[in-house]
Amino acid sequence: MQITGKVHCLFEQSGTFKNEFKKLGFEAFDYDIQNNFGETDYVIDLFAEIDNAYLGGGKYL
Amino acid sequence: MRIWGGVSIFDTMSCEDLIIAFYPCIYFSCMSQMSMSWTAKNYRNLSGRQATEKILERAHNREIFFARLVKMLQVVRERGLRLILENPYSLQTFLKSGFVQPPSIVDTDRTRRGDYFVKPTAYWFINCEPTHGFTPTTPKFRKNIMSANPSKEAGLCSEERSMISSEYAKNFICDFVLGMEQPSTQKTLFDL
Questions:
Q1: Is B85 helix (H, G, I), strand (E, B) or coil?
Q2: What is the pLDDT of residue A10?
Q3: Which chain A residue shows the shortest CA-CA distance from B14?
Q4: Per the CB < 8 Å rule, is B3 touching A11?
Q5: Pairing state of beta strands B2-4 and A28-32?
């Protein structure tokens, strides 16, 4: 698989995968509602984000 | 013009990106499944009705977590985003029965790629395909679920059990995501 964009690690706050992706040269970010390890780049309620994203689905206007 | 429901972080992600979701397994794991039984150890001091209430509460929460998971997968399917979903896959874990699709990969023994735990784990690749490399790595040390530090709160996942070693993370990325061969860190019979 070729990744030309970013890597988004959802529900990860340890930074384990994020940092390994970074070592391989990728731009990577952790997203979680907690930041107990100091590695969460975006402290965010992912469940609310999923609900928002799902709401209404994709519509053509 | 196409619009997507409400505003969310998924709006900032593109088809060139990769999402890896370590979705909470608290209501899906085999430990949670055991808590659906009246004989679960955590209920030993509760009355029959109290245990039943706990089980019904857990079933309700599981439904909420399950619905959100399926919604997340549908969101990335609709948008053409590439996502890898990770979740435990041992014994009678909930996602083994009647999930939206079977996993793309099940790693039945994570210690073979350098993790501390055997802990069978499933990966669902949505809008992308896994590669199939193998980087044998001996873990620095091994742990087992029963000897790991428990959660501070009954019914929650142990933090220690949830952690993945950095060696495993690197090997997973190289073996299953990038298809990238790494210099051998462990001698095989072919190296002799």
A1: strand
A2: 97
A3: A5
A4: no
A5: unpaired
Smallest Cβ–Cβ distance between A6 and the set B17, B74, B165 belongs to: B17
Q: Which of B186, B156, B161 is CA-nearest to residue B171?
A: B186
pTM of the shown model: 0.88
Identify whether the C-beta of residue B133 lies closer than 8 Å to the C-beta of residue B158. Answer: no
Residues of B in contact with A21 (CB under 8 A): 173
Number of Cβ pairs < 8 A linking chain A and chain B? 128
Q: Above pLDDT 70, what percent of chain B?
A: 82
Which of B:50-69 have CB within 8 Å of A? 68
Sequence-ordered list of residues with C-beta below 8 angstroms from that of B130, at least 6 positions apart, any chain: A1, B104, B105, B123, B176, B177
φ, ψ (nearest 5 deg) of residue B118: -65, -50
Max intra-chain CA distance, chain B: 64
**A37 at interface of B, judged by CB pairs closer than 8 A:** no
Contacts of B131 in chain A (CB under 8 A): 1
pLDDT average, residue stretch A13-21: 95
**pLDDT tens-place string over residues B127-185:** 999 999 888 887 777 766 666 666 656 555 566 666 889 999 999 999 999 999 887 66
Smallest CA–CA distance from A60 into chain B, residue:
B2
| In contact, A18 and B170? CB cutoff 8 Å | no
Cβ of A51 under 8 Å from any chain B Cβ? yes
Residues A59 and B3 sit within 8 Å (Cβ to Cβ): yes
Tokens for B113, please give them. 């790629």
Please give the mean pLDDT across all residues of chain A: 90
DSSP-derived secondary structure letter, B51: H
